[in-house]
Amino acid sequence: MNKNYIALSLASIFSLGLISLNAQAELSLPSGTDTRPNLSLDPFERSREAMRKLPVTESAAEPVAQVKQQKTKEPIQEIREVARNPQTERAPASQESTDAFSYEFAVTMDAFSLIAGGVKQVDDPENIPKQTGVVGVIDFIAEVDTRAAGLWDNGSFFLYSALTFGQSPNAGDLHGISGIDAGRNTMKIMEMWYQHSFPYSHSSALFGLHDFNGEFYVSEYANLFVNGAFGGGQIIKSNGNPSTFPLINLGLRLKSELTENSYFQMGMYDGAQSEKEIDKIISISPSKKDGVFMIGEAGIFKNEPGDPAGYYKFAAGYWNLRADQVGFERVDANGDPLVGTNGDPIHILEEDPTPGTSGAYFLAETSIGEKMGLFFKHGRAAANYVQYEQFYAAGINYKGAIPGRDEDVLGIGFVHTRHSAAYLAQFDESNPDRPFIAETTYEITYTAQITDWLMIQPDYQYVQYPNMDPSLMKASVIGVRAQAIF
Question: Among 119, 167, 447, 448, whose CB has the most other CB atoms within 10 angstroms?
Fold first, then answer.
């Protein structure tokens, strides 16, 4: 029997056991015995509190809407996140939703101009003209609370559909200037899942089309930024081919709140889909050849971002892609593949193929005083069969930098991604096309909440060695994000 499906079966058995345990416990547990906060299921306190990325004083006005972008920051990541993250929304166990059906529309648009560098034009290699591009996403998010609907307790159905359009200017960078750029005009159901929480064990289980990056490897402060690198980074997204925007797969996620200030979560997802799936309205096509992507994360935290008493979060995770991997082929100085005496390509590694690849990550973030927030993210992959081996991201958020604009946030951050030694070993040292070892992106951004439904975010990005391409030394882009939530 395939090992991937054995693992999936074990996870299913674990879920059934958890359900059974809670069913017995909830029948015998006296009311009020355990008063620790339960895992909240309400995603609709989310976007109206998006500016909570930094602590606020008790007299400060209530934060207003700004949906965070990852993406691969996901375009509606913040809207979805509160529904599933115990560390971001810890409602009292007695709190109950009164709305059976909730919904929301969000429109996000990025307009950028390439002012220096970027990809050279094929028809005129010496000319690098300014390029402009507009990219956007129109989101519809809906939730059904099963208790309020008169069905059963502790359940929630979630639907997220998106219409993506436009294209960013071609800066040639690895991660993408805009995290909401899906690469084409399409409309599809991005997420569709059911989640059930278990109050006694402070746990929950979720199954369906689910974006792993909505819950795993999430930094509140990093999601202020527009560049796609500040989400999961290419260490996971390119090497692991996980379920994430814009190709989201079937998955099972289990989460447990170990103590009032710690949690553990694990997920199992169908492997990468082909690019043709992105044009389908809904893509549910599990296959053995896709493999299985598995991930686990444990973390500790204090309060929520925006709490006057201070906030911090430390988390570490491990992921594994169970799918055949092929070692990189050696090439000569001209870039042509080298072959052995039998006529077959010569690979960097002899084991070919090998089942799967894996990696680990760490993130930390904290508030400092009432205006500042810091974050750091690091990821590393097993280098033998992956192109990208290391990933670093760090930055600072500062609230109220302009007098009279107390709710605006200034962000300065950078992202650094490095090639693996195995990948670089393909290229002879004398090869003029041998790529650089790393790409680094710097971003300065500023969010201004114009009304309770409209946010404007000017943005500047500088990319050093885009995509590690030796013909591209730098790229500079300037633009603005506009976001409206209804």
Answer: 447
Residue 165 in any domain: the answer is: yes
pLDDT tens track for 168-209: 888 888 888 998 988 888 898 999 999 999 988 899 999 999
Tokens of 274: 């082909």
pLDDT at 243: 84
Other beta carbons within 10 Å of 396: 15
- For residue 280, the model assigns a pLDDT of 77
Inside any domain, residue 207 = yes
Domain count, the chain: 1
pLDDT at 93 over 60: no
The three-state DSSP-derived secondary structure of 399-412 is ECCCCCCCCCEEEE
The reported pTM is: 0.75
**67: pLDDT strictly greater than 50:** no
3-state secondary structure the chain: CCHHHHHHHHHHHHHHHHHHHHHHHHHHCCCCCCCCCCCCCCHHHCHHHHHHHCCCCCCCCCCCCCCCCCECECCCHHHHHCCCCCCCCCCCCCCCCCCCEEEEEEEEEEEEEEEEECCCECCECCCCCCEEEEEEEEEEEEEEECCCCCCCCCEEEEEEEEEEEECCCCCCCCCCCCCCCCCCCEEEEEEEEEEEEECCCCEEEEEEECCHHHCCCCCCCHHHCCCHHHCCCHHHHCCCCCCECCECCEEEEEEEEEECCEEEEEEEEECCCCHHHHHCCCCCCCCHHHCEEEEEEEEEEECCCCCCCCCEEEEEEEEEEEEEECCCECECCCCCECECCCCCECECCCCCCEEEEEEEEEEEEEEECCCEEEEEEEEEECHHHCCEEEEEEEEEEEECCCCCCCCCEEEEEEEEEEECHHHHCCCCCCCCCCCCCEEEEEEEEEEEECCCCEEEEEEEEEEECHHHCCCCCEEEEEEEEEEEEC
Residue 393 exposed, middle or buried by CB count within 10 Å (0-12, 13-18, 19+): buried
Whether 474 is in a domain gets the answer yes
pLDDT of residue 85 exceeding 70, the answer is no
pLDDT at 127: 54
The b-or-e profile of 270-281 (16+ CB within 10 A means b, else e) is bbbbeeebbeee
Q: Which domain holds residue 281?
A: 3-27+41-485
- pLDDT score recorded for residue 453: 93
pLDDT tens track for 214-269: 999 999 999 999 998 898 777 787 766 788 888 888 999 999 999 999 999 999 99
pLDDT surpasses 70 at 393: yes
Task: Look up the CATH number of the domain holding residue 69.
Answer: 2.40.160.180
